[in-house]
Design brief:
The protein is α/β, with parallel strands linked by helices and 555 residues long. The protein contains 25 helices and 10 strands. The strands form 2 sheets. It has a 5-stranded parallel sheet, with helices on both faces. A 5-stranded mixed sheet has the order 7-8-6-9-10, with helices on both faces.
Length: 555
């Protein structure tokens, strides 16, 4: 069998020499066909050869770096699509992420290069090239079969329980289920549903997500069968079966290892936050529907637990308040909160709000949609206070556009608490514009903490840093800060940064410059925070401001 042709691209001659040696020592299936010192030179040679199977390219190179080379290769229409392995330094993770988006197959850290480190990567690369050859030689590609399995499982997963009894009457579906049995089996089944923290509208990103998941789940350590299906623009479903005799504990251990790896890779290289709901284990092809719905419910619990978590069945918590009791208590809570907001003392409404939010979680410990619905209705009723006191929604629109819709779109409980607290605080300030002036005295500790924040908001600063600087414990400062300012430390810092960011956007600065100036290293993270606080993306905010400026200039 002919060897696969590899091409090395690195501006360091010693690095190229080392790679040659390691490849010759660790793989008998690969031979070095050529090398280049930068991306431009490599692109010229690759266009001439058209027979390269593997490219090992340094990310940081002069003239044309590895990421730029990947873009050029994608547009070069080579007769053979090579697998690209990126070589990166420890500080290159942003470039590595861009590389994966552009279709890189894998990466290696240059600081770790040795025989033991490089061998598994080359083994996986050769296995993928072998798989491609095998797939090209078959009449019915494996990918088509996987798509058929996914289509059948998708239909089965979305069916209602009342329809399951009709399956035996559906010849087409019966044949489909037999097809699934043949490819997956029906023993020791488990479903994992990956929920991204946001909808992804780009197809190339979805291709990269699928490639990453399949690369991980196809490793030998899985000891089972896994089919990965894209559910929609936010969710991916993994259907596992373990044909060998396995205990539930062993299956959890195996899938936890695989899913943890998936989570880390997607976070590190695509900057995606996610939660994964993982069902229990059952046997029987008709169990797929129940297992999927269980995994779906669990994935949504990221609302309470935050993202970057694996959520198992035990994460679901029982109701602590019966429905009738809660309805009665909630009905009395709302007028009490409205009455407290009418009072000038801002501590009253905060106490009522805290009690109400606690009761919401006790009633709906596993149902974020019910919590959001209750809060949306509450905000609607709070609007009556604004009308009674001559405060229009229009004055609130810039900071809180479409508040009922916004609270339904919040991703976590912590974000919801912060947003509701901020919303009610600003509303209370509007209702009692003079009360803030009379209650504006701050203790020396909190005043100093605020001063430090206002002077260093653009730095990587935390509550622990501030507490050391003002000479008190972290817990004391946290409680005292919230008590005296009416808002917790994180919310205050976030709001301060966003207000400064608004100034930068209004002055025409680029978004990544604004992000850096207010303390956010990652512009994407800054954009998400900005939208959560203001309801508008930075781009939309700037357009809104520009539109208002144009209108005012004609008046």
């Amino acid at each position: 069998m002919a060897k696969y042709q590899a091409f090395i691209i690195d501006d360091e001659p010693l690095a190229r020499l080392a790679l040659r040696e390691y490849i010759s020592l660790t793989s008998t299936d690969i031979e070095i066909a050529g090398e280049a010192g930068d991306g431009e030179e490599a692109l010229t040679l690759l266009r001439e050869r058209q027979d390269i199977d593997i490219i090992l390219a340094d990310i940081q190179m002069p003239r044309m770096n590895g990421v730029e080379l990947l873009k050029a290769l994608r547009d070069a229409s080579l007769s053979r699509e090579p697998l690209v392995i990126m070589l990166s330094a420890y500080g290159d993770y942003s470039y590595v992420r861009d590389s994966f988006v552009l279709g890189a197959f894998d990466y290696m850290l240059k600081a770790k290069l040795d025989e033991a480190y490089i061998a598994p990567v080359l083994h996986k690369t050769v296995a993928e090239l072998n798989r491609r050859q095998s797939t090209a030689a078959t009449i019915s590609p494996a990918q088509d079969e996987e798509e058929m399995v996914c289509a059948i499982l998708h239909r089965l997963s979305l069916s209602h329980a009342s329809n399951l009894s009709d399956y035996e009457q559906d010849d087409e579906l019966r044949q489909g289920l037999a097809f699934v049995r043949n490819h997956l089996g029906e023993k020791n089944q488990e479903v994992a549903l990956i929920r991204l923290s946001e909808i992804i509208p780009f197809e190339h990103v979805h291709r990269m997500v699928l490639q990453t998941i399949r690369t991980v789940t196809n490793t030998d350590r899985n000891e089972g069968v896994c089919r990965v299906c894209r559910h929609d623009d936010r969710h991916y479903t993994l259907f596992f079966t373990f044909p060998e005799q396995c205990s539930t504990l062993a299956i959890r251990r195996l899938t936890q290892s695989v899913l943890t790896d998936v989570k880390i890779r997607l976070r590190q290289f695509l900057n995606l936050n996610l939660s994964i709901g993982i069902s229990d284990v059952a046997s029987g092809v008709m169990q797929w529907n129940r297992l999927f719905k269980q995994a779906e419910r669990l994935s949504i619990l990221s609302y309470y637990h935050g993202y970057d978590r694996l959520l198992y069945p035990e994460a679901e918590r029982p109701y602590r308040i019966e429905e009738d009791d809660w309805k009665e208590e909630w009905a009395s809570f709302k007028p009490e909160l409205l009455q407290a907001l009418k009072e000038a003392d801002h501590t009253l409404w905060k106490q009522r709000m805290q009690h109400g939010l606690e009761r919401l979680v006790e009633r709906f410990p596993s149902s974020p949609d019910d919590i959001k619905s209750a809060l949306s209705d509450l905000i609607w009723e709070v609007g009556s206070l604004m009308h009674q006191n001559g405060v229009s929604w229009e004055k609130f629109h810039e900071q809180f556009p479409h508040p009922m819709e916004h609270v339904r779109n919040l991703e976590t409980w912590d974000e919801t608490i912060q947003w509701v607290e901020l919303f009610l605080e600003k509303l209370h300030d509007k209702l009692h514009p003079k009360s803030r002036c009379t209650a504006s005295w701050l203790s020396p500790v909190v005043a100093k903490a605020k001063s430090i924040l206002e002077n260093h908001f653009d730095e990587d600063i935390h509550l622990s840093n501030i507490s050391e600087m003002v000479g008190v414990s972290e817990s004391y400062l946290s409680k005292q800060f919230a008590k005296e300012t009416g808002i917790n430390f994180i919310s205050y810092l976030t709001n301060l940064r966003i207000e400064k960011a608004k100034e930068g956007l209004e002055n025409g600065l680029k978004i990544y410059d604004v992000a850096e100036k207010v303390g956010y290293v990652n512009p994407e993270h800054f954009s998400r925070i900005f939208k959560k606080v203001t309801g508008l993306s930075p781009v939309a905010y700037r357009k809104e401001k520009d539109k208002r400026f144009v209108i005012s200039s004609y008046m």
